[in-house]
Structures are given as C-alpha cells and as structure tokens.
Amino acid sequence: MSTHPGWPARLGPLQVSGGVVAVRPIRMRDAAAWSRIRTRDRAHLEPWEPTSESAWDARHHVTNWPGLCGSLRAEARKGRMLPMSIELDGRYCGQITLGNIVRGALRSAWIGYWVEQDVNGRGVATAALALGLDHAFGPVGLHRVEATVRPENEASRAVLRKVGFRDEGLLKRYLDVDGQWRDHKLVGMTVEDVSGTVTDRLVRGGQAQWI
Fold first, then answer.
1. What phi and psi, each to the nearest 5 degrees, are found at residue 202?
2. Which of 45, 96, 99, 105 pairs as cysteine with 81 (C-beta 3.0–4.6 A)?
C-alpha cells in the first residue's frame, strides 16, 4: 500500500496553445516513447542533464526503462518522490518529478522536468509545472518546493518565472553537467507565495484554461 499522500494521481487536464496537457504516474508502457524521444532529442536534452559514465544512447535504450521505471515507482511508494509523465493530447511527451521529499519540520522537495523539443514554446512545460506544484502544495502537503537551473538555460528559467518561482541565489560549481562542474541558479517557492493555485495564475493570465 502507498505511504505517499499524493501518489498515485492524475493531474489536469489543462488546455494551452500547444494542446491538452495532463500529468500522470509513469508506467511500464512508456518505454518505447521514452526511448525514442530521449534518443532523438539528445542534442536538446544532454547539455542540461547530469553527466553519466554510460553512453547516452545505451542509457536510453528501451530495455533500460523497466528497471528505471520500477525503481522510481518503488521510491514513490516509500513517499520519497513522485515520478510523473507529461501527456500532450494523450501522448507521452516528457516527465516531471518531485524528488527528495522530506517530511517533518521541513516538508520540502525539488522539482524537475523535461519535454521533447517539438513542444517547446507551446505552454506544455509551464502547464505541467503548474499542475505539479499545485499537487505538491495540496494533496502532497509540502510547504516548500525548489528547483535548480543553469543560468544559460533561458527557456527553462522563463518557465520557472511564469509559475512564480523566485530567485534565491547562485550555487557555484553545483553539479557535474555535460562534462563540467556548472553553476546553477536556485529558485524556490513556498505555499504562502501562492494565491489560490498556480494553475489559477495561468488561467487568469490567459495562458491556460481548465477543460
């Protein structure tokens, strides 16, 4: 039985310029889409992701998904993370994860996401992030969510600003990314920063609508 108050769950859907966005738990049958997108979009994704000793194509072969999916879902059942898939018009197009969930006096987590290159600039990542944050501050019961982003990643920084994250500082040589120790911006948000819900903010701004 799950010990996580926000797992499993399906979030959305929201209508954005790119289509209908929903978020739901990862599943074994995501394997083919995950492998195809991650392999095809290597040039788009690799510059922003932690360095690995294994080759990109080998790491994202379809046969690796069952083990990865199983381990992530096991962590979700223990209440340590929420590994979710992003859907656009019912089709898998990326992932969003709440990780390092800590309870007690801290009640915090980090959030990270990626989407396939073809949906960039269409409101998909922004909608998924808003849905994930509302879930974190609502059913999951967190007080704070933070994210880290490379200063050069203007597209991701714009998404984080749209949903209301605030800059909290610069982490020098924070993470080994794409073969080098890279600086990262730290951004954060607490439940007190949210008036209504994060998705309400998008709807009021004309960036999304409930369907």
1. -70, -40
2. 99
